[in-house]
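Reminder to self: keep the SMILES exactly as supplied, no canonicalising. Ligand is pyridoxal-5'-phosphate.
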Amino acid sequence: MSDERIWSGASPEEVARDIETLVAFADEGLSIEELDTMLSDRLMPHLIRYDRPSFHSLFNMVPEDGALHGARLALEWNQGVTNWQVSPGGAVLEELCCRALCRLFGLEESAEGTVMYSGTYANQQALYMALHRKAEKEGFSLADEGVNGFADPGRLAVVTSVDGHFSLRHAVRVLGLGEKAMVKAGVDGNRRMDTAHLRKMLADLSGTRDVFCVVATAGTTSTGSIDPIDEIADICADHDTWLHVDGAYGLAYQLIPEWKHLFAGIERADSLSWDPHKQFGVPIPSSIIFTRRSEDLRRMAIFSSYWNLPDTVEPNPGIKSIPSTRPLTALPLVTSIRHLGIRGVIDRLRSPLEVVREIHAYLDEQPDMECLHEPDTGILCFRIVPEGLPGERLNPLQYHVYDTILKEGRRSISITKLDNTSVLRFVVLSPTVTVEAIRETIAEVRYIAESFG
Ligand SMILES: Cc1ncc(COP(=O)(O)O)c(C=O)c1O
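Structure tokens returned for the bound complex:
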């Protein structure tokens, strides 16, 4: 069993004691060598080694070699990619990269994308664009009048499943709708959105609420489940409602031929979000929002007299989202895909999914383990259920296991709740993670559980 630490396991107080000296800002400067020594002594031990097979719990990974190369260049040149004027090459590269990705994902000819800071902001922008379209149908501009333009803004609602990401809650808050605008549909036995429930809910709500967007998740954060997009698209079409697919985590897996069927219908989504900074191994932050019709991204445009000028013909990524200063995020993505080749990209994506399937098959046969779902992607939720332990002790046991593993610092596991059940979770993004490494973590889970009082 690997005894190597992937981080110190220190308490927040211990970490702060070590790091304090870094922020003792002084009149005298330090040489780069002195800085390096200080950082490797004080900070590095408390960072997590995402490159180790024993790290298999979260959505992080180290950059892939091609991505690292592009990222170094992007950093050295520090290009701002707002518009043609500030970085002609950067602006065109981003535009072309997003169009090439639309084709790679099989989106419609009219589809377009833009780079975002993170999936959270991509989801927020999707809801804004959906609301904008709703306002247009009612004959006014959301940009000008805001939600007050609606006869009764209190009726506006967004539907997602109970496993939809919490960034959607942020989105309805910042849109000024408040969380009462979020309505949750149930999930089926594999934690995919229950479409029968969705259909019934929309019918029931039709007299009292105005549902302007349904958010399907392609790879939920808890279990990696992929909602049935095609069926949800049918329902949205029946109700003339915007469909956003939150593929922040899962969309990449649509590229693997054996997984593609799970994403049937994505080209019907009005908008899609995707985080290449998850399993693509490009530096954080790297997210993209795609829209089926390019004019929907134009809803974001704000022109100024000195910068994003109206009627310019040159590429202008800065008018497709809120940030003015934007980094050359497309470069590491492009260099990574070119370095690996599409075949290499697909092989890297497939390997963790196969590991998770194998672990699922193994856990399913263990009498002291319970799997909570069949993995659609690279996430698996399970819990240890030792014989004879009273039911009410099971949730505390999972927390005890999680806490102990975290503090030991040698491996990683995460914890989440599915309804009221606390579960342990593997999230496998990196192709360096092996079945053996996860089996070692499972052995550790058992060992820790034995001493649980
Ligand atoms: C399904 C889903 N949506 C949205 C997000 C938010 O993305 P980000 O962390 O890039 O803001 C996540 C993050 O894990 C996610 O899993």
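Points to follow up:
The mean pLDDT is 97.
The domain at 338-450 is CATH 3.90.1150.170 (Aspartate Aminotransferase, domain 1).
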